[in-house]
């Protein structure tokens, strides 16, 4: 008997409906085959499905079973075909009947017949809505991912036996309750509060601006100056994701299995830390079954690359295109895959291998050649894409010690965050119909439309361009940062003091 079950395949962030055809023939040699371009993981489904059915106390047929995954030209990856294959076999055996409405079955089986948390359920739910699929049968632990999409019924399945009873109407599984997105505000774990960092007022100000507008940030300074500490305090001042931003991030986290069991929408703004030993694929994405890299996991959030010059140059160069476009394209035989990668880069470095170049107190021990090699690892075009360049000097140790004895009133992350949130809200309103969320993402047309400079500001900018022979890209980036500074101040026009401040974050490093 032939039966057809609906499931889905993910290719990049695209979801394609897949028909799982199961045929059981009593004639011919007994066997169990899967056809239709399955990967190794899908082929292993045979063992899992067979054992799970037997361990659910259902007799496995001694017949010739053929499973076809159609359309055949789409590569099938992952373990999510276990459930539709099992249901297909049980339906062909007339152990269960199928729901009348269009339904997706999706999930990995354990050998004991229970269902495991399976990646990609959020995308499955999005696809269900687009394809008018009414019901979703997914593992219990993954069901909350789907429950944020209205107008579909999500059935959380714990085991194959539970599903059999549900489909036969002997014991109905309760639908997962719709999860309201606004209920999901989660706390980001934060390592340091800004109030724990003594001094460094100008660094804190620059970081606030970067976070408020989503601008890339580069910090340079001697060892122990507090660069890593400053960067690690950033999650505490980031606003949570807006609704649209959250949906975009959740897709990436769902398909990579980064949503924990029981989890739902991602609301905390991503903060990803990458070590310099990361592979190029790990950073930008790729592989034969193309998967997103760290830059996509940092989408709408922050990617922190500490010890920036230690990253291989070719790895860093791979950041250039995504930093410009906000997406990464991976070419594959089966078609190119795009992953969003609109991240804010935070990078930290010493000025030279020993770390003390330009330090007023300690002498640099590096040869000019060593310094040149070190700095050459960071190419001009890459550094040109960074809006805010910051020198982080060592704070005076005595001052630091004296101040830490008497608790000083440095501003808490929470109150800095309030300003960042306010500035972001202004941007969300401004770009409502533009498809972007922050000043850093403005294209030239947006700059023309939304960045009005008063006369003094125009004059100052013109002078700076000719005095420092700034590139066109730098010119536009300066205006974007000035826009953010004006937003923090709650001003609609950009005035000369905003331009002057953004110039500080640009000129200082190009001078060195
Ligand atoms: N301004 C500061 N306030 C409080 N503690 C500080 C400050 N600056 C540095 N420290 C202390 O010094 C330690 C080292 O700082 P951190 O690791 O951030 O330096 P770094 O600039 O990243 O150095 P490196 O270049 O060696 O990576 C911190 O963990 C912290 O304990
Ligand atoms: Mg450090
Ligand atoms: Zn040195």
TrEMBL record:
SMART domains, alphabetized: AAA
Q: Name the Gene Ontology molecular function terms of this record.
A: ATP binding; DNA binding
Record-linked InterPro entries? AAA+_ATPase, CHLI-like, MCM_dom, Mg_chelat-rel, Mg_chelat-rel_C, Mg_chelatse_chII-like_cat_dom, P-loop_NTPase, Ribosomal_Su5_D2-typ_SF
Against PROSITE patterns, the record matches this protein to: MCM_2
Q: Which domain of life is it from?
A: Bacteria
Please list the residue ranges annotated as the MCM C-terminal AAA(+) ATPase domain: 293-388
Tell whether rRNA processing is among the UniProt keywords: no
Record key words, sorted: ATP-binding, Nucleotide-binding
* Pfam families in UniProt: ChlI, Mg_chelatase, Mg_chelatase_C
**Which positions make up the signal peptide?**
none
Family per UniProt? Belongs to the Mg-chelatase subunits D/I family. ComM subfamily.
- Which PANTHER family does this chain map to? COMPETENCE PROTEIN COMM (PTHR32039:SF7), MAGNESIUM-CHELATASE SUBUNIT CHLI (PTHR32039)
The protein's name is Magnesium chelatase
């Amino acid at each position: 008997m032939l039966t057809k079950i609906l499931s889905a395949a993910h290719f990049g962030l695209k979801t394609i409906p897949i028909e799982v055809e199961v045929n059981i023939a009593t004639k011919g040699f007994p066997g169990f085959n899967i056809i239709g371009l399955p990967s190794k993981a899908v082929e292993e489904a045979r063992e899992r499905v067979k054992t799970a059915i037997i361990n659910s106390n259902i007799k496995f047929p001694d017949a010739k079973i053929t499973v076809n995954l159609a359309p055949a030209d789409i590569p099938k990856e992952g373990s999510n075909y276990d459930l539709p294959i099992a249901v297909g076999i049980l339906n062909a055996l007339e152990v269960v009947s199928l729901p009348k409405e269009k339904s997706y079955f999706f999930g990995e089986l354990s050998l004991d017949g229970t269902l495991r948390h399976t990646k990609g359920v959020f995308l499955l739910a999005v696809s269900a809505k687009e394809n008018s699929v009414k019901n979703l049968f997914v593992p219990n632990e993954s069901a909350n991912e789907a429950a944020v999409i209205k107008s579909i019924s999500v059935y959380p399945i714990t085991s194959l036996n539970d599903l059999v009873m549900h489909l036969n109407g002997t014991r109905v599984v309760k639908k997962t309750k719709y999860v309201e997105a606004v209920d999901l505000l989660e706390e980001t774990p934060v390592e340091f509060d800004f109030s724990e960092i003594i001094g460094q007022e100008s660094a804190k100000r620059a970081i606030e601006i970067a976070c408020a507008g989503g601008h890339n940030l580069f910090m340079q300074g001697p060892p122990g100056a507090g660069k890593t500490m400053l960067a690690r305090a950033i999650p505490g001042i980031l606003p949570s994701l807006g609704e649209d931003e959250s949906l975009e991030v959740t897709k990436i986290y769902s398909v990579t299995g980064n949503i924990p069991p029981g989890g739902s929408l991602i609301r905390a703004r991503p903060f990803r830390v990458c070590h310099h030993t990361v592979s190029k694929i790990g950073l930008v994405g790729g592989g034969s079954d193309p998967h997103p890299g760290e830059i996509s996991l940092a989408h709408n959030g922050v990617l922190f690359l500490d010890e920036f010059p230690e990253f291989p140059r070719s790895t860093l160069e791979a950041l250039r295109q995504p930093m410009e476009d906000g997406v990464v394209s991976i070419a594959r035989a089966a078609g190119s895959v795009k992953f969003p990668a609109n991240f804010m880069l935070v990078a930290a470095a010493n000025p030279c291998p020993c770390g003390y170049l330009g330090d007023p107190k300690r002498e640099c021990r590096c040869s000019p050649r060593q310094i040149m090699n070190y700095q050459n690892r960071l190419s001009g075009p890459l550094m040109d894409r960074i809006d805010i360049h910051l020198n982080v000097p060592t704070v005076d140790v005595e001052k630091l010690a004296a101040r830490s004895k008497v608790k000083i009133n440095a501003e808490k992350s929470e109150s800095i965050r309030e300003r960042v949130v306010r500035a972001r809200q202004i941007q969300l309103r401004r770009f409502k119909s533009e498809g972007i969320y922050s000043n850093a993402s403005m294209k030239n047309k947006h700059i023309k439309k939304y960045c009005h400079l008063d006369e003094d500001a125009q004059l100052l900018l013109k002078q700076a361009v000719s005095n420092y022979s700034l590139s066109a890209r730098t010119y536009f980036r300066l205006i974007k940062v000035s826009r953010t500074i004006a937003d923090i101040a709650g001003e609609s026009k950009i005035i000369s003091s905003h331009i002057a401040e953004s110039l500080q974050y640009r000129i200082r490093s190009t001078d060195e």
